[in-house]
Write a structure and sequence with these properties.
heterotrimer; A mainly alpha (91); B mainly alpha (120); C alpha+beta (187); B: 120 residues; mainly alpha; 4 helices; elongated; C: 187 residues; alpha+beta; three-stranded antiparallel sheet; 5 strands; transmembrane (chain B); transmembrane helix (chain B); sodium:proton antiporter activity (chain B)
Chain lengths: 91, 120, 187
C-alpha cells in the first residue's frame, strides 16, 4: 500500500508542476485562472491522500474550504475579466 | 481493512492521480484556451470525486461520509459553473482562436444582434 | 402546487422554504452531528441568509421520477468516468494538423429552467463539450465541441445534446416537458 501512496503522491506533484508551468506561462489571465482551478483540484487530491494515510481525517474541512474558495476565486476572476474588457471595448 | 477494500482504494487513488496528471498534461500541450479548458475541467471533477470515494473507503464513518458527500456535491455543481463563467469570459474577451474552429454559431448569433442575456 | 404555502414573507422579502431546508441540510452536514438543535439553527440561519440576500425567483417546476433519475445518474457517472481517458489521449496527440473544433448552437425542445440548468451542468461532465454561453429566452446552448470538423460531426454532437436533454426530462421533467419532448420526436 505504501508503494501506491508513493506513486500517487508523485503523480500529484508531477501534475502540480505541469500546472505550474502553464500558470507561469499564461499567456492570458484566463489561462492562469484555469490553471489555478486545476491546482486547487490537485491540492484537494493531496489533502485527500493525507486524510487516507492519517488515522484521523482532519483534512476534510480544509478540503471543503479550498473547494469553495477555488470556486469563488475563479467565478470572481471571470466576472472581473469580462467587466474590465467591456470597459475597454465599449465605454 | 479487507483486501477488496484495499484494491478499491488503490484503484480510486491511482485513477484519480492519473486524472490529475492528464489535466496537467492537457493544460500544457493543448493549443488554445478553450481546448485547454476541456482538459482541465473534466478530469478535475472526476479526480476529486475518486479521491473522496477513497477517503470514504478508508474512513467509513457517518461523520466522514456526510462531509465527503457535501464536498462531492459542491465540486460537481461548482466546477461546471466556474468552467462556464471562464469560457464565457474567454469568448467575450476575444480569446478564442477562430482558426481552430470549423463553424462558430455563437459568432453568427451575436452578429445577428440580440446578444445572449447577461448573467446579472 | 400551492407556492404561497412554501414561502415565508418578511416585509416584502420572500424566502422559499425548500431552499431554506437545503441550506439547513448543508449546515447539518458541515457540523457532522444530526441533532434537532443543529437542524433548527441551520434553518434559522438559512432563513436569515435568504432574507438578507434575496434569491432570484426561478420556478424550478421539477417532478422527480425515480427510474429516470437512476438512469440519468448512471449515465452521468459513466460520462464522468469516460472523461478521464479520451482527454489524456488527446493531450498527448493533439498537435496534429487538420484537427478542428466548433462552436455550435443547440436549441433544447423544453423551456423549463430546471431542465435547462441540469442539462448544461451535465454537458460539462460529458467529454468533448463545454458550455460557452446560453440564451434562456429561446433555450439555446452555445457549446464548444471538440472534434467537430464537418457538418456530420456537428449533427452528431447536436443529437447527443438532445439525447442528454431527453434523459434529464425523464429524470426531473414535468408532464409538459415530456410532451414537448415527444411532440417533436413523432409529430
Amino acid at each position: 500500500m505504501n508503494i501506491v501512496y508513493g506513486v500517487v503522491a508523485g503523480t500529484h506533484v508531477l501534475a502540480a508542476l505541469l500546472v505550474g508551468v502553464r500558470l507561469v506561462r499564461g499567456p492570458s489571465m484566463l489561462d492562469r485562472a484555469v490553471a489555478l482551478d486545476v491546482l486547487v483540484a490537485v491540492i484537494m487530491a493531496g489533502l485527500g491522500l493525507r486524510a487516507i494515510i492519517a488515522d484521523e481525517p482532519w483534512e476534510l474541512v480544509p478540503m471543503l474550504v479550498v473547494s469553495l474558495v477555488g470556486f469563488t476565486g475563479s467565478a470572481a476572476f471571470a466576472r472581473f475579466m469580462l467587466y474590465r474588457d467591456d470597459q475597454v471595448a465599449d465605454p | 481493512m479487507s483486501a477488496v477494500a484495499d484494491v478499491a482504494l488503490a484503484g480510486c487513488l491511482l485513477v484519480g492521480a492519473f486524472a490529475a496528471l492528464s489535466a496537467g498534461l492537457g493544460l500544457l500541450t493543448l493549443p488554445d484556451l478553450l481546448t485547454r479548458m476541456h482538459a482541465a475541467t473534466k478530469p478535475q471533477a472526476v479526480g476529486v470525486v475518486l479521491i473522496l470515494i477513497a477517503v470514504g473507503i478508508r474512513h467509513p464513518t457517518v461523520d466522514v461520509i456526510t462531509t465527503l458527500v457535501l464536498i462531492a456535491l459542491l465540486q460537481l455543481t461548482t466546477v461546471p459553473v466556474a468552467a462556464h463563467l471562464v469560457g464565457r469570459s474567454a469568448y467575450r474577451t476575444g480569446q478564442v482562436r477562430s482558426d481552430l474552429l470549423y463553424t462558430d454559431e455563437l459568432r453568427d448569433a451575436l452578429d445577428r444582434g440580440a446578444p445572449p442575456e447577461d448573467l446579472d | 402546487m400551492d407556492r404561497s404555502r412554501l414561502t415565508v414573507r418578511v416585509g416584502g422579502r420572500v424566502a422559499r422554504l425548500p431552499i431554506v431546508a437545503w441550506l439547513a441540510l448543508v449546515w447539518v452536514l458541515v457540523w457532522d452531528r444530526i441533532t434537532l438543535a443543529n437542524a433548527i439553527y441551520g434553518f434559522v440561519l438559512g432563513l436569515a441568509l435568504l432574507l438578507a440576500f434575496p434569491f432570484p425567483a426561478v420556478d424550478p417546476g421539477v417532478r422527480l421520477r425515480p427510474a429516470g433519475l437512476v438512469r440519468f445518474g448512471a449515465r452521468f457517472a459513466l460520462d464522468l468516468a469516460r472523461s478521464v481517458l479520451p482527454l489524456a489521449w488527446q493531450a498527448v496527440g493533439s498537435n496534429r494538423p487538420g484537427r478542428a473544433n466548433s462552436v455550435i448552437a443547440v436549441t433544447l425542445r423544453t423551456r423549463s429552467d430546471a431542465v435547462f440548468v441540469l442539462t448544461a451542468v451535465a454537458l460539462s461532465a460529458v467529454p468533448g463539450t463545454l458550455v460557452l454561453d446560453l440564451r434562456r429566452a429561446t433555450g439555446t446552448l452555445f457549446l464548444h465541441a471538440l472534434g467537430v470538423s464537418d457538418d456530420a460531426t456537428a449533427d452528431l454532437a447536436r443529437r447527443q445534446v438532445l439525447d442528454l436533454e431527453a434523459r434529464v426530462v425523464r429524470a426531473i421533467g414535468t408532464r409538459a416537458d415530456l410532451r414537448a419532448l415527444t411532440g417533436e420526436e413523432n409529430p
